[in-house]
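[Automated response] Your request has been received and processed.

Submitted sequence:
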Amino acid sequence: MPTPSQPAPRNTVHRHPTRRSALKAGLGFALGAGLLGAAPGTATADDRSAGLLQTGTPLCEQPGDSASAQGLGSGDLAIPYHREHDNTWGYVFGDAFGGIAQADPYLGSPVILNQAAFDASGGTPISFSWAMPTGGAAKQCFDYAHRADNGHGFEITRIPNDCIEFGGRTYIQYTSVALWENIPAGYDGSLMSGVAYSDDYGVTWQDYPYHWAGDTQGTNQSMYGMWSFAGIDPDGWLYVFSKRWNGTHANTADGGAIQLFRIRPDEFRAGNFGAQENWAFLDGRWQWTRAAAPSVMLSGNRIGEFSVKRIGDTYCMSYFDVDDYSICTRTAPRPDAVWTAPKVQIVGDALPPHHWGRPQLPFLYGGYIHPGSASATSLTLIASQWQSVNHGKTPYRVLQYDGIRP
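Generated structure:
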């Protein structure tokens, strides 16, 4: 439940299909688009009046686009990060394919495409300039086999949750997934989570030896399943938010629980994760401590992918609200301050009144904040669409939305 220092989130529940289950057609999208809200991937009148922004611009799965030029036909997530060493940008995809509509070859996960320059104004869409490891030849970054035991137990795939570069090293936090479907109620279906790093800016990767055990390793609902790197604050700490694994959107026990910890960048680089300080409610008050584990600081509806970034002097959060079927945002002046109430930004349907007038994107999930966003009142979000095998396996792509006011 929300703690005394945090606002209570909304508890409205709207059931909808999950990302990896067979999505059913005819969910009222045509009705909602025609009568109650914007058509899928289009701007509202307010969006258009703000300027010529990207409001649902596909970044892959379009014949002849910049992603296909780098060997990626279809993929999801595209988690943006700043390549600090040369002031370029990286985008980390999950399970990706060389062909459109999830057509072979299967590239794996994670896959990285890069961009030379990002237009924060939203005037021009993201265009990929080269891939990892070499331009035009996108392939899986990590060295592991899918649907196999790679020394930790059976895993289907490794899904990136966030990426950050600092001090000449690039880091990806990921979840190893043991179950995508038929996950028992109350279980998260993960094998473990870990942090991989690269000292050649994303060409080759290796794991830190420590991993956080997941469901099938005996630790169900670990609060270290999914991370988001909020960034290194002017106070010198790296702030990290984490939550239970729910990239499947099928974890019935997720509860939207989010926790916060911080660590010195040099300790993180050394893999000394035990040096973290935890934001905990202890002795009747919130405090930074090593004497207790992090406390749940936000909770409510189930949450899938989430993202927290320091934009200017404001901390901005976005997440996929599984129950509300929407991407929401919140802000705070500090990571450990009170966060604003959720604000609905992009919706998978337009039926509930609080969804009316919002940009509509069927088969919605994801929602990652671009760290190069124009300002804390004009964010760029990268959203995902996924369609099931029963409906042609398309769309399976990421889209760019600019001018988001959290």
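Summary generated for your ticket: The CA atoms of residues 2 and 368 lie 24 Å apart. The chain has four helices and 26 strands.
If you did not submit this request, please reply to this message.
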